[in-house]
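For consistency, the fold was encoded as tokens, which produced the following:
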Amino acid sequence: MKKNYFLLLTLLLCLPLSGRQRLKVACVGNSVTYGMGLPNREKESYPTRLQEMLGPDYEVRNFGHSGSTLLNRGHRPYVKVPEYRQALDFKADIVVIHLGLNDTDPRNWPQHRDDFVADYHALIDSFRTANPHARVWICLMTPIFHDHRRFDSGTREWHALIQDHIRLVAEGAGTGLIDLYTPLHRRPDLFPDALHPNAEGAEILAHTVYGALTGNYGGLQLPVTYGDGMVLQRNQPLTINGTANAGERVKVKFLGRKLTATAGSNGSWSVSLPPQPAGGPYEMHIEAGNRHVTFKDVWLGEVWLCSGQSNMEMRLRQIATAAEDIAAADKATRLHLYNMPSIEPTYAKEWAAERLDSVNRLLYVMPGRWERSSAATAGNFSAIAYNFGRQLADSLGCHVGLISNAVGGSCTENWIDRAMLERELPAILRNWKENDHIMDWARDRAKLNIKQAANPRQRHPYEPAYLFESAILPLKDYAIGGVLWYQGESNAHNIELHERLFNMLQRSWRAYWQRPDLPFYFVQLSSIATRPSWPHFRDSQRRLADTLPHTWMAVSSDLGDSLDVHPRHKREVSDRLVRSALAHTYGYRLCSSGPEYAGTVREGKTLRLTFRHADGLQAAGGAKELTGFEVAGSDGLFHAATARIEGETIVVKNPEVSVPCAVRYGWQPFTRANLVNRYGLPASTFAGKTSDFQF
């Protein structure tokens, strides 16, 4: 079928050159095709823009009719509007159909869904009858966004079901399929009423249709993550991919193999190799059409994504061990760095118009380039990521590539894909600048940054889903070995919500990389005197690490700064992360964590606490006494407790609490709690109770 498609397409596109006849293109559809809401639809609608792109060898006509349905028994069937008869009389050589949006109306889909496939086939057949040589493309629908009035009441689900039916029709009817959903779903700023694209959105539609009709996608294009010095993930299936003009033959030479692929109708191509061991340096050659690209110094090793907010973003030159770390950076010869900086920090200032425009175009996080570790390059890289990667490379004896795309102040919801938020938490998307789901600091800072925006749907990195769309989507198909995550400061206002969001974040990324077992290592929030919710938040993070699969946590509360949310002792945090990764991901036999609270039993007037990783329990730094423990009775009032170590357990008590029922540890925003194990690894903040206590 694919061979026949390209043969027919080639013959069709050659017609105007040989016969000097204009190819007739009929754009069939509803209000999106018509150009509803555009100030000057005669010049701005997508068919008009398509005409300009295709040029004088084509004649493009707009046969859109607002409100029309594909369903013949719908409330306004397209086959009964005058534009349908006009389109048939046009006898188009090419027909592009975009229908289905109005079928999501409760008057239509719930009543007549069983007619959809047959009605679509009949519509396609009618155009083929009008011109037996016509080529037909049908379109996946443009998005309907979260603030549409019927989004939650059925439209969201019906839109997805109709998309599935459109795919089925394209396969069964042998038409082309154009995806109008994907290029616009990440651009809600282009949909003033959540349904109709503005002029810029219509331009994107026209470009998408133009690519499908002509097969012209600008020739060979490669992911932004490809470059000299890149590290590709070892021991996983290796995919090399990109885009090229439809039907173009792509040749790849790598690891002594010659691989070929043909770019599909959407321009995409890929070749695959079985899992490869660590090694290098190699060269990779990719050729398509008249373009040839060679990448040098390519390695197979471990690739880690390092993300989150400012404590992950904090640069090596800013931390306590900066001088020592940077001086040794030239020796970290196996370490490769790919930094994705923001175009401007979210400082307390108003952004200029050109900056706002870049943000809307998803250009806030810039693509990086691969660099070897050196004294010149390491200082501006994430300190936690750098020291993690340096130690990992030394321990594994292979090259390690680090991708850092952290954004200061960002919230968990910024990093989750839009489709997941639409399904599971659409309320967080609505009116996000006034939305209590989002921390007030983040909302206020965003409103200040975008104060000069002319577009009421102006975007900002603190908008839900934005950083997934601008900082994660560019990494597509670049395989990674694991994730380092340091974030939470901007979600500590709502612990219960964060528990949902953190779970969604992991599922979002694991689905995106198609790795249900993708390792996820995160840093627990540290200590600071001015954040009263943090003890609860740290305990919530501890429980998340206990319950979520393939997830591990590094404690940092003992390294905090009472006055600064950005503590400078970062190398120690990296030490704990790499120890955990070596144990859980790479199978090293070593202690991966400090004492982990396991349970509480009452023994008279005392409580006995049990722990995992409890070998050599002691007070940190050789202190004589344990600090940080509190106990409470049935009244729920906590009192400072004395604590003594008995083997791998701890016994706590307070003489004022005769029947203790509950215990907590490290329960201050800035804590000096000091329980560690033999390896100097600290215990997390925790709260516990006896089995008979309801509190």
